[in-house]
Design a protein that fits this description.
- With 679 residues, this protein is α+β, with helices and mostly antiparallel strands.
- It contains 13 helices and 33 strands.
- The two termini are 33 Å apart.
Length: 679
C-alpha cells in the first residue's frame, strides 16, 4: 500500500548503518540441564524448557494489563494462578505508551513495570510480547496512529529505514525498562517475543534480523527471544529465522492435532532447541459488531489442551482473561477487501475462562482447571469467589447539547483549511471523530453526494448559514462497508448551503494486508460528479482511556454557557438523528462492579466519571451492556455522559444492571449496510 520511499542502493547504505549491532553468543545445549548453581536461569535444551537446572513445562495464559483496570490486576492474576497457570503472556502496545510522538506514558493502565513486578510478587513468570506489531484485536496492531501521518508513507512491518529508526527510538525507551525484570536479573520475564505472526504478513528477513539484533543490544544474550507463527510450512518459512538465536513457536486452531504441527516446528529450530509449545492456544474467539457472540464448548477446549499437556507439551491460553477494549482502542479486521470492514466489540470477553468481569464460576474455567491440575508440578491454589456486582437501577438522562452547538467553526486553533479533505492523522487527531465543513450551491431537485473512500462512518447534514436557530438537516450516512451515493434534499437558503460531514474512526485494522488504515475522508467529495473544494476540518477531541480528562463543556456550566449558541437552549427535547450529549447521575452507597445497559439506544460513546468506557451500538449488536469495573465508581454521586450519534432511547434512560448481555440485534448479514444506515 505504501510506496517504496528510497532507491535500493540508498536503502542498502542506510540499512547497513543500522545493522552492526552486537551478535548473540550461543550456549551449549546441555548448560541449563547441568548447571544447578544459585544463579537464576531459564533456557532451552534437549527439546525442553529448563528453569534453574530442572525441566519446566509452561502452562501459561494471555492476560493484557492494558485491558484491565490497574486496581484489578492482582485480582485477575490470582484467578489465573488458581486456574493452574505458571506463566502470564502479555503484549506491549506501542500506541498506549506513545500516543503522540515523543509523549511517553507509563502510568495508570500503561504502568507496565508495576504489572511485571506484581507478576513477580505472585510467583508468575512472564512471556513479554514487545512487538513492535502485536495484532491482538488492538487499534492498528499496537502501532501509534501518528506513524500514518508521515510523508512519504512509512512501510509498516518492514525494513523501511524510516520505520526502523522509529522502532529503534521506541525500543531504546521500552527495553531498558524491562531489562532489570528479566529472569536472569531476578525478575519474572523468561522470554521476549519479537514481532507477531509475521509469516502471515510478509517475508522480510532483514526486518526480523534487525529486530533481533536491536533486542539483543538492550536485553543481552541470556534472554530467550521467540517468534510466533501459524503452524503451517509457508508461514513458518516466512516468519522464522534459522539458527538457535531465536526460538520458533507456533499457534494453530483449537481442534487441530497438535503433534504433527510440533513435529513441523522442530524443522524451524536448531537441534535440541524445539520444546513443543502453542503460544496461542485459543480458548475462545473475537467478535465483531453485527455478529453473534463467539462461543466455544468447554469440554472440547479442555480435551484439546490435554492432547498437548499429556505428552509433555506446553501451552499458553489465548485468552486466559480477555478484559475490555476501553476507550477507542478496539481493533478491526477486513474480509476480501479493505471495504469489508469488521470492527471489534468494546468487550474483549473472548469466551475466556476468566470472563470480562473476572468471573470464574463457569464451565470452561472448571474444565480447563481439571486438565491443568493433572499435569501441574504442585497443587493448585484455591479458586477465588466471583466478585460481587450490583444493579444500581434506572438512570435518567437529560439532553444537554447537540454536538454541533458545542462547536464554533471560527477562530479555533485546531481548525484546518484545505482545498481537499485531510485525513484524521494529517490534522493530528488519532482517535474519535473529525468534522468536515464546506459549502455548495443547491439545486431545485436536490443533489447527489458521493465520497469514494471514507474511513469509517460518515453522517451527513446540511443547513442554511443564516438560520442559526434551526437544526441542521440530517441527510444520510455513508459507510466504508456500504459506500453508495446519497441524496441531498433541496434546501432554499439566501446563499450557499452548509455541508457538514461527521466521520467516526471505528478502530484501525490490526491484521492483514490493509493495515495502513488512515481515517477520515480519504478521497475527493463529489457533488453531482463534480469535486467539492475548500474544506474546513476540525478534530473533535474526546479523551481516550488513560488520558487526563479534557475540558468538558458538558459538565462545566461555565464553559457550557460560553460555548453554546442560542439554539442549544431550545428544542433539546426533540428526537432526531443529530448527534447530541446526554448526562445523568446516580448515587451509590456500596461500590461494586456493574454494567450499563444501552438497549434502546442507537450508537455512541459512553463516559462514567469522565472515564471513556467504550463504544455502544445495540442497534447492531450483539453487545448491549458495557462493563464498568468498581474502581471507576465512587461512593455518592456518579456521572454518566453519553454522546449518542443517532436517535436516543425515547425515555432517555439507561440502566445499571448486574450482568453482561450479548443478545442485542445482530441482523446485519447481507443487509448490513442498509441496517446501519437506518440504525
Amino acid at each position: 500500500m505504501a510506496r517504496n520511499r528510497i532507491a535500493a542502493v540508498i536503502f542498502a547504505i542506510v540499512f547497513a548503518a543500522f545493522a552492526p549491532l552486537p551478535s548473540s553468543s550461543h550456549r551449549s545445549s546441555s548448560q541449563f540441564r547441568l548447571d544447578k548453581g544459585g544463579e537464576e536461569k531459564f533456557g532451552i535444551a534437549d527439546d525442553m524448557f529448563w528453569k534453574d537446572g530442572e525441566p519446566f513445562r509452561i502452562i501459561g495464559g494471555d492476560l493484557h494489563y492494558f485491558r484491565v483496570h490497574p486496581e484489578y490486576w492482582e485480582d485477575r492474576l490470582l484467578r489465573a494462578k488458581a486456574l493452574g497457570l505458571n506463566t502470564i503472556q502479555t503484549y506491549v502496545p506501542w500506541n498506549l505508551h506513545e500516543p503522540s510522538q515523543g509523549r511517553l506514558v507509563f502510568e495508570g493502565f500503561a504502568d507496565l513495570v508495576s504489572f511485571l513486578k506484581l507478576c513477580k510478587k505472585l510467583d508468575l513468570l512472564v512471556m513479554l510480547r514487545v512487538g513492535p506489531y502485536i495484532c491482538g484485536e488492538w487499534d492498528l496492531g499496537g502501532f501509534p496512529g501518528w506513524l500514518l501521518a508521515k510523508e512519504p508513507p512509512i512501510r509498516l512491518r518492514s525494513s523501511d529505514p524510516v520505520f526502523l529508526n522509529l522502532v529503534e527510538k521506541w525500543w531504546s525507551i521500552l527495553l531498558p525498562k524491562v531489562f532489570p525484570l528479566l529472569y536472569s536479573n531476578g525478575g519474572p520475564i523468561i522470554m521476549v517475543q519479537v514481532e507477531n505472526e509475521f509469516g502471515s504478513y510478509g517475508d522480510d528477513k532483514a526486518y526480523l534480523h534487525y529486530l533481533v539484533k536491536l533486542a539483543r543490544t538492550h536485553l543481552g544474550d541470556d534472554i530467550i527471544l521467540y517468534t510466533t507463527d501459524g503452524g503451517a510450512r509457508d508461514t513458518l518459512e516466512k516468519g522464522t529465522l534459522k539458527g538457535d538465536d531465536v526460538f520458533s513457536a507456533v499457534d494453530f486452531t483449537t481442534g487441530d492435532d497438535p503433534w504433527p504441527i510440533f513435529k513441523l516446528q522442530k524443522e524451524f529450530n536448531a537441534p535440541g532447541k524445539s520444546p513443543p509449545i502453542s503460544t496461542e492456544f485459543y480458548t475462545g474467539w473475537l467478535t465483531h459488531w453485527g455478529e453473534n457472540i463467539a462461543s466455544t464448548d468447554a469440554s472440547f477446549t479442555a480435551t484439546y489442551l490435554e492432547k498437548i499437556l499429556s505428552k509433555n507439551g506446553s501451552a499458553v491460553l489465548y485468552m486466559a482473561h480477555g478484559g475490555t477494549n476501553l476507550g477507542f482502542y478496539n481493533g478491526a479486521n477486513t474480509g476480501d477487501n479493505e471495504s469489508d470492514f469488521k470492527p471489534d466489540l468494546t468487550s474483549y470477553d473472548y469466551d475466556a475462562p476468566i470472563r470480562e468481569s473476572g468471573d470464574v464460576d463457569n464451565a470452561k474455567y472448571k474444565a480447563l482447571r481439571r486438565v491443568i491440575a493433572k499435569y501441574s508440578a504442585k497443587p493448585l491454589a484455591s479458586i477465588p469467589p466471583d466478585n460481587e456486582r450490583i444493579a444500581y437501577g434506572r438512570i435518567k438522562l437529560d439532553k444537554v447539547s447537540y454536538l454541533y452547538d458545542m462547536i464554533g467553526m471560527k477562530d479555533l486553533v485546531d481548525l484546518v483549511e484545505s482545498e481537499n479533505p485531510s485525513s484524521m492523522e494529517a490534522i493530528g487527531q488519532m482517535f474519535g471523530f473529525v468534522l468536515y465543513a464546506s459549502e455548495y450551491t443547491p439545486k431545485s431537485n436536490g443533489s447527489v453526494l458521493s465520497m469514494p473512500k471514507v474511513h469509517d462512518r460518515a453522517q451527513v447534514f446540511i443547513s442554511c448559514p443564516e438560520d442559526s436557530d434551526k437544526r441542521p438537516i440530517y441527510a444520510d450516512v455513508i459507510t466504508r462497508w456500504s459506500n453508495r451515493p446519497i441524496h441531498l434534499p433541496y434546501l432554499k437558503c439566501e446563499s450557499n448551503n452548509n455541508l457538514f460531514i461527521l466521520v467516526e474512526n471505528m478502530g484501525r485494522l490490526n491484521y492483514g494486508p490493509y493495515m495502513f488504515d488512515r481515517k477520515g475522508i480519504l478521497s475527493s467529495v463529489y457533488l453531482d460528479s463534480t469535486p467539492l473544494y475548500k474544506w474546513k476540518t476540525l478534530p473533535l477531541s474526546l479523551q481516550n482511556v488513560n488520558e487526563s480528562p479534557k475540558i468538558n463543556p458538558i459538565i462545566s456550566n461555565t464553559i457550557k454557557t460560553a460555548f453554546l449558541k442560542g439554539s442549544a437552549r431550545k428544542k433539546l427535547t426533540e428526537l432526531n438523528f443529530e448527534p447530541a450529549y446526554y448526562t445523568g447521575h446516580f448515587n451509590i452507597e456500596k461500590v461494586r462492579d456493574t454494567y450499563i445497559s444501552f438497549r434502546g439506544w442507537s450508537k455512541g460513546i459512553a463516559f462514567v466519571n469522565e472515564i471513556n468506557v467504550g463504544r455502544f451500538w445495540p442497534s447492531v449488536g450483539p453487545q448491549c451492556n458495557l462493563y464498568v469495573p468498581a474502581p471507576i465508581l465512587r461512593e455518592g454521586n456518579n456521572t454518566v455522559v453519553i454522546l449518542e450519534l443517532e436517535s436516543p432511547k425515547p425515555d432517555l434512560t439507561v440502566s445499571s444492571v448486574d450482568h453482561p448481555d450479548f443478545t442485542c440485534s445482530s441482523k446485519l448479514g447481507k443487509s448490513r449496510g442498509r441496517l446501519v444506515l437506518t440504525s
